[in-house]
Amino acid sequence: MSDLQAIKGFKDLLPGEASQWRVIEAAAREVLDAHGYREIRPPVLEYTALFSRSIGQSTDIVEKEMFTFEDRGGHSISLRPEGTAGVVRAYIEHGLFKSNPKSKLYYIGPMFRRERPQKGRLRQFHQIGAEAFGIPGALVDAELIMIETMIFERLGVRDLDLVINSLGCRNCRPAYREKLVNYLKSLPAEMFCTDCQRRRETNPMRVLDCKNEGCRAAVEKAPDIFNDLCNDCREHHSKLKNYLRISGLEAYNFKHIFNVKFETNWRLMRGLDYYTRTAFEFLSPNLGAQSAVAAGGRYDNLVEELGGPPTPGVGFAIGIERLMLLIPEATHEKHPDIFLIFIEGGWNFALVLSKGLSDRGISIEMGHDVTRGLKGQMKQANNSGAKFALILGPRELETGYAILQNMEPGVKEPPMPIEITPDLIDMVENIRGKVEDKKKKSQR
């Protein structure tokens, strides 16, 4: 065995998993496209200043977790640790705030953080993200949350809890931050973990949602941010809750729609400084301590802080690795519709049939090693998970009829003869009709 292995925290995506990812990506694209979001593909490398200015110089991500290095020109560059900053940079750099100020964009791709690898949490991880620019008000916040629930629903993901909060704005948050700092300073340092001892002054709001039991006990009586929200933030949060109720997301009252309940938790904070007002997370009880599957919020000052005009913004990101842990087994791998079995003299038919059927939306796999014989190829067909086997053996070529055999486990059906016609297009259409007819019957 070679001594060369994947870098710690970086993972190969093998064919079975890649098939599952395609299902996830297809579901996300279908839902986002249907709601007017357009795909954008920012680069994975950016100048480090983009992240330190947007995420926050004192955040754990910038201080400890980014892959940062100097290029040959002496510039500090970083692998992106999250997707929003790069999309905002592109929105400004390419003048979308002029040509399309109300832009709705989405992206799918890898992010990088130097964290301790664990289940569902790698150093190269992948996200589905969506960002809406230029749209104020809580209705778009609710729309994005609804879009996430639709993606989860299409993938068969169940039993998620939605937690929401308001982080205030630049008008009301400073007063709350000062109260919180004073409270945290009044407690002995040893009550907090090492990270939170540092955060008490540099990033105090992050102390509130630390998972360390000692820290959680220490902030039990911390000031509640809702007591310091300005009227605008209070109204925004109230409207969001009302929209979610109307959408069928009220706690315990909508299992027949999305199987998601929501609650407000004043301790929910995000690890990025750019959030204002709305913050939310989707949590799963099946993921252990790292229970967040998706998260997001509003960032109404970020475009302006990075050099653009004042522009409201809101977005979300779904972690694909964590989502994969929750998807039912049935969606993990896509199997071909037909496995073609043929002998030496049938290869010309096999090639033409393969192209003709795939052109008409029927997925095909072939047993290329004809020396294995029909029995060996039939075993390959079983292992492939194909719904049907199309057999072009000596008897079939002699009689002029191929055999279409249902391969579904437990199904016993007589073989269906398919005439090998001079015009093979007719044969292709005959096969396609039988396969699609069988699909329709099985879906009833």
How is this structure best summarized?
The model is unreliable at 251-259 (pLDDT under 50).
Please, what is the average pLDDT?
A: 84
User: What is the share of helical residues?
Assistant: 25-40%
How far apart the termini lie comes to: 50 Å
Structural class: alpha+beta
Which superfamily, in CATH terms, is the homologous superfamily of the largest domain?
Answer: Bira Bifunctional Protein, Domain 2
How do the strands line up in the largest sheet? Answer: 1-5-6-11-10-9-7-8
How much strand?
Answer: 15-25%
CATH architecture of the largest domain: 2-Layer Sandwich
Text of the CATH class of the largest domain: Alpha Beta
Individual helix count:
16
Shape, please? elongated
The biggest beta sheet is recorded as: 8 strands, mixed
Q: Tell me the CATH topology of the largest domain.
A: BirA Bifunctional Protein, domain 2
Low-confidence stretches: 251-259
For the structure shown, list the relevant keywords:
BirA Bifunctional Protein, domain 2, 16 strands, 16 helices, alpha+beta, eight-stranded mixed sheet, Rossmann fold
List the helices and strands and how they pair.
Elements: H1 15-34, E1 38-39, E2 45-47, H2 48-54, H3 60-65, E3 68-70, E4 76-79, H4 84-93, H5 96-99, E5 104-112, E6 124-133, H6 139-154, E7 160-166, H7 173-185, H8 194-202, H9 213-218, H10 231-246, E8 260-264, E9 276-283, E10 292-298, H11 302-305, E11 313-319, H12 320-324, E12 338-342, H13 347-359, E13 364-366, H14 373-384, E14 388-392, H15 394-399, E15 401-406, E16 416-419, H16 424-443
Parallel strand pairs: 1-5, 7-8, 12-13, 12-14
Antiparallel strand pairs: 2-4, 3-4, 5-6, 6-11, 7-9, 9-10, 10-11, 14-15, 15-16
Helix pairs in contact: 1-6, 6-10, 13-16
